[in-house]
Amino acid sequence: MNYEEKEFDNQKVNLQTWKKIIKTVFTNRKSVILLFTFVILLGMLEAITPLLNRYAIDVFFEGKDYSTLTPYIIFNVIVSLLFGLSVWGFIYQAGKIEVETNYILRKQSFETLQRLPFSYFDKTPQGWIMARMTSDSRRLANIISWGLVDLLWGLIMMIAILVTMFVLEWRLALIITAALPLMIVISIYFRTKILKGYRKARKINSLVTGSFNESFMGAKTTKSLAIEEENYQEFISKTQELKQASVKAILFSAIFSPIMLMISYVVIGFIMVRGTNMLLVSALTLGTLYAFIDYATRFFEPIMQIARILAQFQQAQASAERVVQLIETKSELVDSPEVIEQYGDIFTPKYENWEPIQGDVEFKNVTFNYVDNETVLDNFSLKIPSGTSVALVGQTGSGKTTIINLLSRFYEPISGDILIDGKSYKERSIHWLHKRLGYVLQTPHLFSGNVMENIRYGRLDATDEEVIEAAKAIGADEFISKMDQGYYSEVGEGGNKISIGQKQLISFARAVLADPRILILDEATSSIDSESEKIIQHATDTLLKGRTSFIVAHRLSTIVHSDLILVLKEGKIVELGSHKELLSKKGAYFDLYKKQFLNEQMDKAVHSI
Ligand SMILES: Nc1ncnc2c1ncn2[C@@H]1O[C@H](COP(=O)(O)OP(=O)(O)OP(=O)(O)O)[C@@H](O)[C@H]1O
């Protein structure tokens, strides 16, 4: 059972969750009060209308007395105006509440996401987060605003009609009231069935969407493995299941309304028979009989409405639980109250208290694991003076990225400490560190927009001249100038209009602009031609100059000038020194270098054939 399905199974009403959502809605107290006022007014007016008609029938048509015609017309106009006012008012206020609730839920989710550490995004599927931020928030906002309106309107109207009917003629009122329990039972039965059907359909739908997604995302792999037929069959069987579940729910929906209508017509029939008898012995006026028939039709409509809304609330509960869960997710990595007091938090940093950084880094007896009992780093120690360039090499899984993750405080050591300029990094805020740290990713992410904007993400207040200067320093100016519109050329979604090497240069220029004291460079694994390699090498040298830097190296040729090379194996340093020193040792580094050198020579030989 996956993340998504597990949470659909909660059938009980979760009052705690709804309380939190309702509290969000009440942030907008004025709109809520206005909304309630308009809805109550509308419910009352619905109960008054049949009374007006009753008066007209009894006084004007039956009694032929027209003395009150003018005030009657004036009263009717006032009622119509009030109708108009209340309909306008509740549509406006409910719409406003819907938009604002959606906004607040998304804002709160977004704020939580900003505070959450990297490990959260490691564990939580991106699609799950996106669904909370979009469809769930939207559904909740919708049901909360319009659902509450319908619920309240239905209840008010039913109460008002019930009271009026008993005041007018209790014997006829009893006939209508007698049908109420039957209608409620039928409504609950059908609504539960419909809800179950749709819930099942939604569950299957999320599987279908997932399978859809996987097929397209992995289109290349699917084709290369020639498994289109299997994927197609799986997709067809899931969509068939979806169709069956949906049709069942639609069938129940289709039966529900006619049954309710039939019962209401039977009730109207009873009222007609009983009412006519009473009319014949003058125990009832024609106007009152008319009013009762009108009330009988109006009375049952809200029952269907209320049943529908309650079912929708039940359906929306899964969304509510997930949104609240996201908003309330506590970060495993937080600054202590003392640190927040001094440095501020991510949204209100106290820059005035932030000390500058030198760039000395020390790992002190650091032990770390991602999963209990699977130690990745064991008592790891390392002291790096400011301005040193450190290269991390080692086989896959040796712990290079883990060291970087810890240094970036995406994770924290289980024991031991990491010191920056001689002070534990926990004594400063996470935001302080992230502002001082540059991280150039292996596959840099570019945002939709032009080159200028993308480089400027390094420092948002940089001028155009500073952006161009950074690009020149890194050697990116040449290819940018050759683009259609130079620095104003669009890079496409995720930078898909430019090559990987060019994306890297842009991300290097970003880092130059940000000018961090500590820089992490996760070197790209993809092989590039020797001309681009030269450009990237030059860019790397420029970028690292004068900074404390950590390079996760995949191609050893790029790190020959590093001050310090660490060779890692199973989370431990097995060798350390400069390129020259390590080669002369003829140990692990020498073996790695030899292997890679031979591979490169082989590649070149193959390409030259
Ligand atoms: N998020 C994670 N959850 C659980 N285990 C992890 C996680 N990330 C890494 N590991 C494990 O930690 C160990 C060290 O991984 P790490 O990513 O640091 O290696 P690496 O040297 O950077 O490898 P590569 O060169 O392939 O990137 C590996 O055994 C890996 O399986």
Automatic annotation (TrEMBL):
A cellular component term, taken from the record's GO annotations: plasma membrane
The membrane spanning regions, by residue number, are 32-52, 72-92, 140-166, 172-190, 249-272
Against Pfam families, the record matches this protein to: ABC_membrane, ABC_tran
The entry's localization annotation reads: Cell membrane
Task: Describe the location of the ABC transmembrane type-1 domain by residue ranges.
Answer: 33-315
Listed GO MF terms: ABC-type transporter activity; ATP binding; ATP hydrolysis activity; ATPase-coupled lipid transmembrane transporter activity
Its recorded name reads: ABC transporter, permease and ATPse components
Concerning its family, UniProt says: Belongs to the ABC transporter superfamily.
ABC transporter domain sequence ranges:
361-595
Protein's organism:
Acholeplasma brassicae
The protein's UniProt keywords, in alphabetical order, are: ATP-binding, Membrane, Nucleotide-binding, Transmembrane, Transmembrane helix, Transport
Membrane topology field: Multi-pass membrane protein
Coiled-coil region(s) at which residues? Answer: none
